[in-house]
Amino acid sequence: MPRVEFAWVCPECRGPLEPVDANGLRCPAEGHVFSRRDGVLSLLTDERVGHFSRFLEEYRTVRRDEGRGVDSAASYRALPFADLEGRHRTEWRIRAASFDALMRLVVAPMAEAAAEALTIADLGAGNTWMSRRLALAGHRVVAVDLHTDPADGLGARVFSEFDFDAVQAEFDRLPIPDGACDLAVFNGAVHYSTDPAATVREALRVVRPGGTVAVLDTPVYRSADAGREMVAERQAAFRRRFGFASDSIESRGFLTFSEIEELGRVLGLEWLCHRPFFGLRWALRPLWSAVRRRPEPATFLVFWARKPGRP
Ligand SMILES: C[S@@+](CC[C@H](N)C(=O)[O-])C[C@H]1O[C@@H](n2cnc3c(N)ncnc32)[C@H](O)[C@@H]1O
């Protein structure tokens, strides 16, 4: 499948970039120089690389310790339907069900209505498994992430037999022109935002009127206290194990149902929402938690909204 058809813009001023050489781009207005390494174009300024460096270092440490990442084309290409490395099978079962719902309820109807390939931004793409799946379905995809790790970040795109773009960028400053995408998806990612309204607003900017923003696999709670308790427990566990809380960038960590509603109100979006079925055991978790007087467990939804305006 061809690469995206738009030209990258400066993440700071959104002006056009000009080529420096075969692997470099430059913002003539601000002087930032950007380069491509191992197939990943870095569109982060030096200042933003510095801003995220501790977050990325700690994130890498935690994820390696958790046994995340892929080390072969076979394990990368099997995702999300099989976890060949076998370390997070339950999690991937959930990811697969959410991804199926996204394809069935959002991507397929959009592609059918457009009668052509969609341009899709996979925001917070991690190792890019979803970008590959979308490229396999015939779409033009850009994978956006801060993390370029060869196993757990954009570097893993080398395992894909389908072509797509991969750019190192932050989802609050996308190097994508206004209205260039049909669909922007946050898969397991929007809860890393400091300010979800600003993050979703930026995603909406790059989506054309009549296009869609979708969110999946973000932990959602009824009560913000339950979400805060989950975040505090995780940070305490990190502190014990690694000596840091992995909170160098303040991130939200979860959403609540009322925040999702509020996001829709503030951004003028009418969310559609689907709750995938992850199995009986999973469905019974809230009941078990109530019986054991434990905090409410997270729910994972697929929710999406059409950007207002005429296509
Ligand atoms: C839990 S991972 C999910 C990865 C992938 N979407 C998936 O479904 O497996 C969250 C990803 O969001 C990325 N991320 C966090 N903050 C970000 C930001 N401000 N801009 C871009 N990516 C970000 C992280 O680097 C990480 O790869």
What does this 3D model show about the protein?
With 311 residues, this protein is α/β, with parallel strands linked by helices. The protein has one domain (39-306): Rossmann fold. It contains 9 helices and 12 strands. It has helices at 46-65, 73-78, 89-114, 129-136, 196-206, 224-242, 257-267, 280-283, 285-291, and strands at 18-21, 24-26, 33-37, 40-42, 119-123, 140-145, 165-168, 181-187, 207-221, 255-256, 272-274, 299-306. Strands 1, 2, 3, 4, 5, 6, 7, 8, 9, 10, 11 and 12 form a 12-stranded mixed β-sheet that branches. Helix 5 (196-206) links the parallel strand 8 and strand 9 (207-221). The model has no long low-confidence stretch (mean pLDDT 94). The structure holds S-adenosylmethionine. S-adenosylmethionine binds next to strand 6.
How is this fold's topology laid out?
Layout: E1 18-21, E2 24-26, E3 33-37, E4 40-42, H1 46-65, H2 73-78, H3 89-114, E5 119-123, H4 129-136, E6 140-145, E7 165-168, E8 181-187, H5 196-206, E9 207-221, H6 224-242, E10 255-256, H7 257-267, E11 272-274, H8 280-283, H9 285-291, E12 299-306
Parallel strand pairs: 4-7, 5-6, 5-8, 6-7, 8-9, 9-10
Antiparallel strand pairs: 1-2, 2-3, 3-4, 9-12, 11-12
